[in-house]
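Example 9 (inverse folding). The structure is encoded as follows.
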C-alpha cells in the first residue's frame, strides 16, 4: 500500500527552511486566529447576528442571506457610495447603510480584541521570524483582521513593515511596498519582516480629512463611531479607497511568482476563488518553487484536484498528504525514529494544526543532521 513518510517530509521541510537563499513566505487564514482563541468568519458572523437588534439585525440577515461577511461589508459600502437622500437599495438609505456598517465594525473589533486571545502560537511563529536570516525578507501574508501577529512581533521587538509609515496615524507608502533591489533609497533591510494584511485590519481607518478617503493605520483599534477599513472588495467601489488592497494583492502576486519561493499556507479554507487562482497559477508557472498547504481537516476538493496535477503543490493533513502529485495516508514512523509531538502524536500528523506548525517553525532554523535523516525514505510501498 502506498503511503507517505512523515519523518522524511518533516526533515525535508526543516532543511528547506534552513536554506538561507530561499525566499520564504507564509499565508494565514482565519484558522490561525481561531487557533489563538478568536472566532473564524462563520462564528464572527454568528456573533454579529447576536449583537445587532431591530431593523439593523433584519437588514444584516437580508444582506448575508446570499453573501459572506466581507461581501456584506462591500455591499453596504457600495450602497453608501451610490445612494443619495431618501433613495433605498436593499431596503437601506445611504445613512442607514453607514450606521449598519459602523455597528458591524464595532462588533468585529470587539470580538477580535487581542485581549481575548492566547498568543502562544503566534509567539512561536514570531520566534522563528526573529531568528530568520534569509537573504530576502520573510513575508507574512494574512487575510485576518486582528492584530495578533503585530502584537507578538512588537512583544519580541522584531522589526517589521506593514506598508504604513508612522505610529498614531500612519500612512500607506506604495513606493516602499513595491520597492525592489534597485530602489535602494526606499528599500528596507531584509531583517525587517514584511506583514501584508490583504483584507484590512481592525486598526485601519478611512482618513476623513482627506478628499480621496485614504486609509490610515491607527495606534489603536478604530473608534466605535468610525468604519474600519476592512476589504472593500466590490470592483465598482471608489477606486481611491481600494488602493491599499490593490497594492497588497499585487505584492502577493509578485511574491508568488518569485523563483524558488517556499510558500507555507495555514488556516486557509481555500474558499476564495481569486486567491486560489493566484496560488494555482504560480504553482504551475514556477515549478522550482514549493507551495505547502497545511489543512486542519479534510482537503478541499479543488485543492486536491490541483495538487494531484501539480507536483510542487503539496497538501498536509492529519491523516493523509498529497506529495509529488500522489495522495496517500501517512505511514507510522520507522521503528527507532522518535518525532516531536507537534509533528506526530503517535497516530496522526499534527502540522495541519497552526498551533503545532508554529512550534515546528520555532525550532526549525538548524537543518536536520545527516545522521537524523539517514535511512529515511519518502514513500513506503508495502
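The amino acid assigned to each position is listed next.
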Amino acid at each position: 500500500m502506498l503511503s507517505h513518510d512523515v519523518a522524511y517530509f518533516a526533515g525535508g521541510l526543516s532543511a528547506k527552511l534552513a536554506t538561507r537563499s530561499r525566499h520564504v513566505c507564509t499565508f494565514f487564514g482565519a484558522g490561525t486566529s481561531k487557533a489563538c482563541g478568536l472566532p473564524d468568519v462563520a462564528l464572527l458572523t454568528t456573533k454579529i447576528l447576536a449583537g445587532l437588534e431591530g431593523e439593523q439585525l433584519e437588514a444584516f440577515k437580508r444582506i448575508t442571506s446570499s453573501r459572506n461577511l466581507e461581501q456584506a461589508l462591500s455591499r453596504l459600502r457600495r450602497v453608501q457610495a451610490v445612494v443619495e437622500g431618501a433613495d433605498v437599495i436593499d431596503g437601506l438609505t445611504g445613512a442607514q447603510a453607514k450606521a449598519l456598517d459602523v455597528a458591524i465594525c464595532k462588533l468585529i473589533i470587539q470580538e477580535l480584541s487581542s485581549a481575548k486571545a492566547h498568543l502562544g502560537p503566534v509567539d512561536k511563529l514570531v520566534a522563528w521570524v526573529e531568528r530568520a536570516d534569509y537573504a530576502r525578507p520573510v513575508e507574512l501574508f494574512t487575510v485576518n483582521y486582528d492584530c495578533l501577529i503585530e502584537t507578538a512581533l512588537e512583544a519580541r521587538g522584531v522589526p517589521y513593515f506593514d506598508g504604513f509609515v508612522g505610529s498614531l496615524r500612519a500612512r500607506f507608502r506604495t513606493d516602499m511596498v513595491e520597492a525592489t533591489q534597485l530602489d535602494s533609497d526606499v528599500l528596507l533591510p531584509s531583517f525587517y519582516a514584511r506583514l501584508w494584511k490583504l483584507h484590512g485590519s481592525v486598526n485601519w481607518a478611512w482618513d476623513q480629512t482627506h478628499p480621496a478617503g485614504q486609509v490610515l493605520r491607527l495606534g489603536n483599534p478604530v473608534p466605535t463611531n468610525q468604519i474600519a477599513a476592512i476589504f472593500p472588495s466590490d470592483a465598482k467601489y471608489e477606486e481611491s479607497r481600494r488602493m491599499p488592497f490593490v497594492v497588497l494583492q499585487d505584492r502577493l502576486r509578485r511574491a508568488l511568482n518569485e523563483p524558488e519561493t517556499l510558500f507555507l499556507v495555514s488556516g486557509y479554507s481555500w474558499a476564495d476563488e481569486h486567491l486560489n487562482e493566484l496560488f494555482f497559477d504560480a504553482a504551475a508557472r514556477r515549478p522550482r518553487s514549493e507551495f505547502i498547504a497545511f489543512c486542519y481537516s479534510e482537503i478541499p476538493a479543488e485543492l486536491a484536484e490541483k495538487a494531484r496535477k501539480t507536483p510542487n503543490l503539496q497538501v498536509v493533513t492529519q491523516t493523509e498528504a498529497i506529495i509529488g502529485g500522489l495522495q496517500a495516508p501517512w505511514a507510522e514512523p520507522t521503528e527507532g525514529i522518535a518525532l516531536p509531538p507537534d509533528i506526530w502524536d503517535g497516530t496522526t500528523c499534527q502540522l495541519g494544526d497552526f498551533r503545532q506548525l508554529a512550534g515546528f517553525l520555532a525550532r526549525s532554523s538548524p537543518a536536520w543532521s545527516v545522521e537524523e535523516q539517514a535511512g529515511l525514505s519518502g514513500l513506503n510501498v508495502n
